[in-house]
Amino acid sequence: MRLVTVRLPNPCAAYLRVYEPLSAFAGEDRTAWRQYARQAAGRGERLRMEHRRALVDVLSVPPVPVPVDESPEAFVMTVDEQVFVCPVQSRLRAWAAFSEFRTSLPEQLLHAFVPPASVAQADASHELWADKEPVAPVRIQTANWAVPLHWFVAFSDEDRELRLEPGERSLVHRARMSASRRRVGRALRTIRRSIGEISYVEELEGLGRWLEEFHPRAWVELDYAGLVQLMTDEELRQDTSAADAAALLAALAVGDEETATMLHDTLVDRWAAVRALEQAN
């Protein structure tokens, strides 16, 4: 039996983030992010702060499905003394998540979660923002209860960083944008040549298009975040999903369907076991 300790607020979600160099931002924004980076919270603390803020909004009366203002916060990383920034974009991401949530429910059921007045205010705020602000790419993708398998294609096992210190348990992969784009492009060619137009192709195409929206010297980060709550230390040590995805594609490239099938089943079973915890008491 696995023992899972949950510390709230920390949803069971993983994140795919893009960190861009300061040169990718316009003049005023570049200056603001440069100043912000000098006192920015670390990745773990920034994530906890974001989750606490979201929990406050959800528990408000009435609930706030979309923040009133865009967050001025960001995730920050430094590589070779160069600063890279991933704006949190909590408002933009909340609109996208709320839109997906409301389309999945009939209107009557939606209003059981969010009062009509709050829905109307969110819609009016979005229309006002859309009329005034330029379209910006969402720099953070979210996946609940499991990591989508096609995300692993953008990384190698060498990009993996595991920490098991109490209170700071994490599993993160980081890769240069150029390497991630090459891996996704190579995977698309391999799958199309070996199997054809399957569902993974569409998912990889979407990932590839998303990566192309950003600066070529950016970094891509896969953060297991809250999912580490669902996995023991040993399971985290033995998680080789990025390596398995790379080996699967290598097997397909040389026509080794037996090995490719075995690796595919390993990946699917590993993450099915994690996802199944969504239904656990």
**Secondary-structure content class:** alpha+beta
String of helices and strands: EHHEEHHHEEEHHEHHH
Number of strands: 7
Question: From the alpha-carbon coordinates, what is the Rg to the nearest angstrom?
Answer: 20 Å
Helical run tally: 10
Q: Average pLDDT across residues? A: 85
Largest sheet: 7 strands, antiparallel
Helix content: 40-55%
Strand content: 5-15%
Low-confidence stretches: 1-9
N- and C-termini, Cα separation: 13 Å
Topology:
Layout: E1 13-21, H1 27-37, H2 43-59, E2 74-79, E3 82-87, H3 90-103, H4 107-113, H5 116-132, E4 140-144, E5 160-163, E6 170-176, H6 177-194, H7 199-211, E7 219-223, H8 233-238, H9 241-253, H10 257-275
Antiparallel strand pairs: 1-3, 1-4, 1-7, 2-3, 5-6, 6-7
Helix pairs in contact: 6-7, 6-9, 9-10
Q: Would you mind describing this structure in some detail?
A:
The chain has 281 residues and is an alpha+beta fold. The protein folds into 2 domains: 19-144, no CATH class; 145-281, no CATH class. It contains 10 helices and 7 strands. The protein has helices at residues 27-37, 43-59, 90-103, 107-113, 116-132, 177-194, 199-211, 233-238, 241-253, 257-275; strands spanning 13-21, 74-79, 82-87, 140-144, 160-163, 170-176, 219-223. Strands 1, 2, 3, 4, 5, 6 and 7 form a 7-stranded antiparallel sheet that branches. The radius of gyration is 20 Å and the shape is globular. The protein starts with 12 loop residues before the first strand and ends in a 6-residue tail after the last helix. Mean pLDDT is 85; it is low at 1-9.
